Amino acid sequence: MPQIIFLPNDELCPDGAVVQAEKGESLLDVALKNDIHVEHACEKVCACTTCHMIVREGFDSLEESDELEDDMLDKAWGLEPESRLGCQAIIEDEDLVVEIPKYTVNLVSENH
Ligand code: FES
């Protein structure tokens, strides 16, 4: 069972968290089921950037992002080479270390 380490995030998990995940789960789902309430404004359909996460370790074990995800990520605050959308990043066998960025850009609420 892969182990996921969420690094401390002032608002969402001040002390960080070490959790177990199942292969095939998305990073976002693992965060949510462990009470790390990452925003997911588009309900996980790859149409926002609020679930942006940075995979500090184990990035290469994840299946590559597709074009749609890359297009969305371009709009994310604090984009890094190891950025992923949490709802699109599917966990494989490897352990991961994940950072949840301090800010998100909520396109949905900003546009309305
Ligand atoms: S929840 Fe909107 S892209 Fe992941």
TrEMBL record:
<comment type="similarity">
    <text>Belongs to the adrenodoxin/putidaredoxin family.</text>
</comment>
<keyword id="KW-0479">Metal-binding</keyword>
<dbReference type="InterPro" id="IPR012675">
    <property type="entry name" value="Beta-grasp_dom_sf"/>
</dbReference>
<keyword id="KW-0411">Iron-sulfur</keyword>
<keyword id="KW-0001">2Fe-2S</keyword>
<feature type="domain" description="2Fe-2S ferredoxin-type">
    <location>
        <begin position="2"/>
        <end position="104"/>
    </location>
</feature>
<keyword id="KW-0408">Iron</keyword>
<dbReference type="InterPro" id="IPR011536">
    <property type="entry name" value="Fdx_isc"/>
</dbReference>
<dbReference type="InterPro" id="IPR001055">
    <property type="entry name" value="Adrenodoxin-like"/>
</dbReference>
<protein>
    <recommendedName>
        <fullName>2Fe-2S ferredoxin</fullName>
    </recommendedName>
</protein>
<dbReference type="InterPro" id="IPR001041">
    <property type="entry name" value="2Fe-2S_ferredoxin-type"/>
</dbReference>
<keyword id="KW-0830">Ubiquinone</keyword>
<dbReference type="Pfam" id="PF00111">
    <property type="entry name" value="Fer2"/>
</dbReference>
<dbReference type="InterPro" id="IPR036010">
    <property type="entry name" value="2Fe-2S_ferredoxin-like_sf"/>
</dbReference>
